[in-house]
Amino acid sequence: MTADRYAHNRVRYHAVIVGGGIYGSLVAKRLSENGWKVLILEAGTGSVATWEGYSAAVDDYRAALHKSPNSPYLPNPAAPSPDNTDPSGYFVQQLDGPLYASDYLRTLGGTTLHWEGVVPRMHEGDFLTQTRYGVGKNWPLKVHDKDPSALSPTTLAMLHKYYSEAEFELGVAGDAKALGKSGVMVPKYTYPMKNIPQSYLDRKIAEVLPEKIGYGPHGTASVEPNMVPAPQARNSSPNPDYRKGEGFRPVGAIGIPNYGERCQGNSSCIPICPVQAKYTPLRTQSQFKDDLVTVATRSVVSRVLFHDPLEKSRPRNGRATGVEYKVYEDPRSRAFTTHYAEADIVVLAAHAIENAKLLLASGVDNKHIGRNLMDHPLVYAKALMPDTRGVGGNIGPHRGPPATSFLDGFRDGAWRVGFSPFRAAVSNWGWGGMADAFSHEVRALVDEGYLPHVDEKPKAAKHLSGRALRRKLAGHLPRQFQMELLLEQPANENNTVTISPDFRDNLGNFRPVIKYAFGSDSDYVVDGARHAVAVARELFTRLGAKEYGSKVAPVRKPGDEAVIARFEDGGFHYDIVGARHGAGTHIMGLSADDSVVDEFQRSHNHPNLYAVGCGSMPAIGTSNPTLTGAAMALRSADQIHSDLMDLHNTLSVTLFEKAGQ
Amino acid sequence: MTAPLKPDPTGEQFAADERYFVDMSVPLTGFSPEDLYATGMVEEYQRTLIARIGAQRAADLYRHYRKKKQEANAKSPVPDELPWPTATDDPILADAARAVVKMWYVGAWYGLSPAAEAKLREAEKTKPQGVAPNEAFMVSPEAYLNGLVWKVSGGHPPGGKPPGYGSWQSPPVPIPAPATGSYEELS
Ligand SMILES: Cc1cc2nc3c(=O)[nH]c(=O)nc-3n(C[C@H](O)[C@H](O)[C@H](O)COP(=O)(O)OP(=O)(O)OC[C@H]3O[C@@H](n4cnc5c(N)ncnc54)[C@H](O)[C@@H]3O)c2cc1C
Ligand code: SF4
């Protein structure tokens, strides 16, 4: 359908949702289930949203020389996406300091097309880091009457309700009992699907796991580590006990509804699952009711409007009237047409950074917009299994999903007053994790004759080939593994997304101008990283594995992942990169004095404008944020339903009070 | 097809019979002819090599490896790598040989070094064989999936050949060691 229809026929929607990613799709689905008419405006194309398009993307990924997260998806200059190796390709930032390069993807389906799909809940302490540890910002949720450092029972019940609903929508596989032991909030609960089996490597590590690990400065904190199956949004076998015996039926693949494949171990969840065993929003979109949800692709929203451009006499009352958007035919062209969509409620669900950009471009008068950009700092500790363990040290890297276990116990504790906690995952995908990683070893051996970081550099260049090359690779690659250490970064107002008329994309929309560093939290993050690396080393020692890494300060080459900070520890240089969990850019709080949105993700300034997603989160602990974001999006959808009921005055007061809960 | 391989094929002969390419790939990769054929990539790689350096130079590379292979097979024990064409003899062939090894292992053509590429452009001026630009590229989606590196990694190519639900719980399949005897010669 052409977008003109909205303008000329003045079709009015109950809600217009900006962005067809995970949160936009979840909100649209829920609103339409309640009978509301919804328009999703999606900046990207819908090129992967068909079976043929999706299959073509899988092929493009296989054919890509560099298998970056965005490699399966066609570049789109009309709605550009950032790239983790090109920090100023789309973002505008100074290149001589810390670099923010967490990528996201602007196409129908959004960033979770290429996400990993690891979905832990947050710890209770993560919501109250300021009260408990004097770190970062609290979530504006009701605390316990008697204990301000605990959430109230109604808050906990609310969180559990929405977490469970999000886990249903995403079809999460997990083992609640095992997770409960690590202190995650899972009361008596069964996940929709059985947990994804833990890998052979996980078992090797579990075998040597001590009862207690000394942790922190001089090992002062003693932690009981726990190897738990990582909860994941990918298909295993449905849990017959789910919802008291109701069971669970996974949603099929796009184009092939009955193709609800289990995870087959393709090991390419990032950047694309060939069999669609991993959750993507395309699944949620396949459940849309056609008569209630309209999805318009190639429609880039440029701002929220607070007046009626077609009827200038209509009064301004602080309510959003709709959005302005630009429609392009050809992604490579600069040509576009401008349109206007009207709705009772406007929901921004365009990703944390894009949401901030849109709020700024719309002139929303709130000084916290675009502040507090945060992410999860990520460090990898690399090691080689010894030759003697397993099958000649062969642990079979690149088998199964990237992480099937968390090494838990380090995510919440008293130490958080001094340094960042961490969430460790055992990475099943060798060093570097990406599918093209092993090409580095092949090229190094053929072109230089040695493995950087592992072998001494030979005096004269040597080139390996034939049986010698084959033997050398077989003795090395199968033993590679790494621990992924994900840290907490507290909200910091100096980390900003802004806009400037000087920096625009092909359609004249703003490019995000980024200023980002650990700044005053540098010690907090880096000390946390050092203590995390120490735990990884303890495990390496117990496995008889040897750690490897760069012994000299690395120099970033074009094509390398952008780095936020570096530190040296135990003779190795570690890179801290972003986990691609951008958050905090429109944080929630109590009023416009301290934040952008309220706990329902509704703008403090404009009562019918919502900004949903990780941007609303005042703190993200050490949990990959998307499950929490999904839970919050569903909560927002319920609140929007209540708002709409109110507006349309169709139900008694008592009913919608309940719905707003 | 059973005609014996010529010791000194012309470019056309090299291009017309894929056995020349397989024969030289045996010592370059350390894999047997059966393993190489099993990848399904022989013809595509042969075409890629010819397109990048020209058929006659590809045939020259074959001649180099045929000779070195015969010398190696006469030795005891048989050495597990053969001498490359040296950069002083022929920088183009030296680089092309390395590009062939990488292509077999990774599925990508990584191209020639700037020095070798300059020589190639120069040679093309006097005796043109017709060569494509020097760019790095994945030969095809199938080439990626069939890279030999996945036979020595303990895993499988990410995004293809999935080993099945739950397979990652089990120990990986042992990796066979390369042969040690004479290099196979296709005749
Ligand atoms: C490689 C990678 C791995 C990840 N792994 C995990 C993980 O394991 N677990 C986890 O919890 N999180 C993970 N994440 C993070 C996760 O992907 C994000 O938290 C999530 O996608 C955010 O959802 P969103 O809907 O806000 O944004 P997106 O998913 O980016 O969706 C936004 C949508 O809005 C559209 N849009 C943008 N601008 C406009 C505009 N102006 N007009 C109209 N439409 C617009 C976009 O095209 C897109 O479709 C990962 C991220 C990456 C990059
Ligand atoms: S491991 Fe493979 S099959 Fe499973 S979700 Fe990831 S890509 Fe899909």
Automatic annotation (TrEMBL), chain A:
Q: Name the cofactor(s).
A: FAD
- UniProt-recorded Gene Ontology molecular function terms: flavin adenine dinucleotide binding; oxidoreductase activity, acting on CH-OH group of donors
Keyword Transferase carried by entry: no
Pfam families for the chain: GMC_oxred_C, GMC_oxred_N, NAD_binding_8
UniProt cross-references to InterPro entries, sorted A to Z: FAD/NAD-bd_sf, GMC_OxRdtase_N, GMC_OxRtase_C, P2Ox-like
Glucose-methanol-choline oxidoreductase C-terminal domain spans which residues?
Answer: 493-633
Write the record's keywords in alphabetical order, separated by commas: FAD, Flavoprotein, Oxidoreductase
All copies of the Glucose-methanol-choline oxidoreductase N-terminal domain together span: 292-377
Q: Does the keyword Flavoprotein apply?
A: yes
- Check the record and name the PANTHER family matching this protein: PYRANOSE 2-OXIDASE
**What family does this chain come from, according to its entry?**
Belongs to the GMC oxidoreductase family.
- Which named protein is this? GMC family oxidoreductase
Which species is this record about? Streptomyces piniterrae
**Taxonomic classification, please?**
Bacteria, Bacillati, Actinomycetota, Actinomycetes, Kitasatosporales
